[in-house]
Design brief:
The protein has helices spanning 20-36, 58-61, 68-77, 157-163, 187-202, 250-259, 268-278, and strands at 5-12, 41-43, 81-89, 95-103, 106-112, 137-140, 143-147, 169-173, 206-209, 214-215, 218-219, 225-227, 233-236, 242-249. The protein has a single domain, classed as 4-Layer Sandwich (Nitrilase/N-carbamoyl-D-aminoacid amidohydrolase). A 6-stranded mixed β-sheet has the order 5-4-3-2-1-14. Strands 6-7-8-9-12-13 form a 6-stranded mixed β-sheet, with helices on one face. It has a two-stranded antiparallel ribbon with strand order 10-11. It has 7 helices and 14 strands. The protein is globular and about 50 Å long. β6 (137-140) and β7 (143-147) form a beta hairpin. It is an alpha/beta fold. Residues 6-250 form the CN hydrolase domain.
């Protein structure tokens, strides 16, 4: 049966770097809390099972999408859909920064990060393979979701391409430290601008989940937020571990996209021709 409303939640956590066992218990605890609060869809941050600054430790914490750890978490989730960040190992030595949607003992979907940042204090392209696909997931009938991981949302083409599929929810798991890009660029302000713009422009409820861990000199600042389809922030976290939740409505999405029909008027054929004419210049 289609649900007209969805209770969504964000688990803002401080994962222990490269300690999958400790992070598994942390995930199970937040899954229990969210289920007790009646959350339907729960989002964890990017690389929530491992922490961010892995570098040479990448091989030690990587797992396939068929890992018993993900199956254990999917079983604990029950009928709640949960999105979890992990290092996916596909072929031997091929690692992806990935996000798995799990539910009812199964892995429903995996998104591999496409836009790997390699600037400031970021060097993901040194350690990970680049994702090559962008596919919808439907954890509940009528509620489709796209996942874009952190820097994916800073390539304007990727949110636009994702929204051509008209998802009911956009999931944005991130790992953002305050000064990891540069001293002048404000990550906290930048992410507010980014999520405000995407949610309002495309008429899509958006969940942003950030870490609040400290890793060496990097402090991940939290600030996780849940947006409605009109670009309004329904709830926003501070700098500590917490669970935030809000209810999003399909009626709001219908109204927002009727009032501002961004995708209807996008003229994708013309955009593709204009883009093709500039590739290689």
């Amino acid at each position: 049966m289609n649900k007209h409303e969805l209770k969504v939640g964000v688990a803002q956590i401080a994962p222990k770097l490269a300690d999958v066992e400790a992070n598994l218990e942390l995930h199970l605890d937040f899954i229990r809390q969210a289920r007790a609060e009646g959350v339907d869809l729960l989002l964890f941050p990017e690389l929530s099972m491992t922490g961010y600054s892995l570098r040479e430790k990448t091989m030690d914490v990587a797992m396939p999408a068929s890992s018993p750890i993900l199956t254990q978490l999917a079983t604990a989730a029950g009928e709640m859909a949960v999105s979890i960040g992990f290092i996916e190992e596909d072929a031997a030595g091929e690692f992806y920064n990935a996000q798995a949607m799990i539910k009812g003992g199964e892995v429903l979907h995996v998104h591999r990060k496409i836009n790997l940042p390699n600037y400031g204090g970021l060097e993901e392209a040194k350690w990970y393979s680049k994702g090559q696909g962008l596919t919808l997931c439907e954890p509940f009938s009528g509620w489709t979701a796209h996942t874009l991981i952190c820097a994916d949302l800073w390539n304007p083409a990727l949110p636009h391409i994702a929204m051509l599929d008209k998802p009911a929810v956009m999931l944005a798991p991130i790992n953002s430290a305050a000064d990891i890009v540069s001293d002048e660029f404000s990550n906290p302000q930048g992410w507010k601008t980014n999520t405000d713009f995407i949610s309002m422009t495309y008429g899509v409820p958006l969940l942003m989940a950030n870490s609040c861990a400290r890793e060496g000199n990097s402090q991940f600042w939290g600030g996780s937020r849940i947006m409605d389809a009109f670009g309004n922030c329904l709830v926003e976290a501070g700098a500590e571990q917490c669970l935030i939740a809000a209810t999003v409505s399909m009626q709001d999405t219908r109204a927002a996209r009727f009032q501002l029909p961004t995708i209807r008027d996008a003229d994708s054929r013309l955009m593709a021709e204009l883009l093709a004419s500039r590739i290689g210049k």
